[in-house]
Amino acid sequence: MRTRILALVAAVAACAGTALVVVPIAHADSPPFDTDWAICSDASDTNCIVSATANGVDTVPTQNNTVRDYPWVKQIDANLIDFGVWHDLGNGSTTNVVDPSVEYQLVVRTGTFVPREMNAVARDGSYSISRSVTTGYTFTVTFKPTPTHRTDAISCSYDGGCGGSTTAATDDLTGFATGDVQTLTTSGLSPAEISQRYGMATFTNAQNSYVFYNNDFDLLEVRLANPHLEADGVTPVTDGSYDAFLPDAFLIGTMNVPDPASVTKYSFTVTRTASGSTTVAPMSVVHEPGGVRIKLRNISFSRPKYSIKPHKMVPGKPRMAGVKKIVGGAKASFSAPVANGGAKIDFYRLACKKSGGSWHFKNGTKSPITMTGLPYGTVYCQIRAHNSVGYGPYGGLWKSHT
């Protein structure tokens, strides 16, 4: 089975009360790995934090022995940058239990590090990337801490197992936030697949999550561990959440969706497998600039698996390479659509005409398609693809050349 791992979000195993040595950080363009990044000191700095706000107010992202919450950013290795929120206890120690009502925004300049994909244990978030020829890449992430199990409670992972419905979160409804951005360079994905994930983002309150694209079955598979909350002696609440922003390039190139702008929740079949049974599950689809956000809610099982499969659709537009005029006809060269709609293309239809004249048609199974019986002189041609669902839209109109 050809299965690709898209992302892995793991709970941070930092316990409440962990001692933290306060060391002043002198800003440098390339801080050592696993060292908190400082606020950028001037407009040309890289590998630094442009701004950090809490509910829109500037906040300093460092411990200063004052009782407060503060965000942090650090680079772990050449392909991974982590971020999150700590609570300063004011006595040289910190905890990761923070106020869940505060909205944080981090604007981070990463230089040559390409922050393609973002994954976070957080909620109500957004993620965007920009690039400058002078300072390289910058990512902006906005989020609120999410209710989650205490990290010093039972360990929980999808493959390793986790507690069932009897596992209690004694600090339910407290806040916790951590995340990462990845270059995906070492992900095993092809360069084309990596480029399609530029800007992809996930927000969830699961302790552990995996996201795969299963090429054999053409579906997105989401595996979550412990995405629900429960207090001692209280019936579990179904407030597990999973939000993912899927870029248009990913929908087209990986999921074979020809027209992302047209998709709705009815464009997909979503099933949930948990406790040995599979049922149809609800999912919402919200269009945002550059892609769609999908949302899963009411996730009450400890280790559910969601399968998100697009319905078969008509194919996208073929990509015309050129139309050459020949004696008595024309020869059109083209490439297959980037997205075939999830069904094999069985033939193409070429349509050509002289300006102001009638259309002539010719079917073919591959490029080029040669059409005869055309009027003398310049003609204009377009082409569309057909699969088991029907005809896709015509591509652009091309003028013949000799």
TrEMBL record:
Coiled-coil intervals, chain numbering: none
Signal peptide: 1-28
Keywords: Signal
Gene3D superfamilies, A to Z: Immunoglobulins (2.60.40.10)
Biological process annotations from GO: carbohydrate metabolic process
Official protein name in the record: Fibronectin type III domain-containing protein
The organism of origin for this protein: Nocardioides marmorisolisilvae
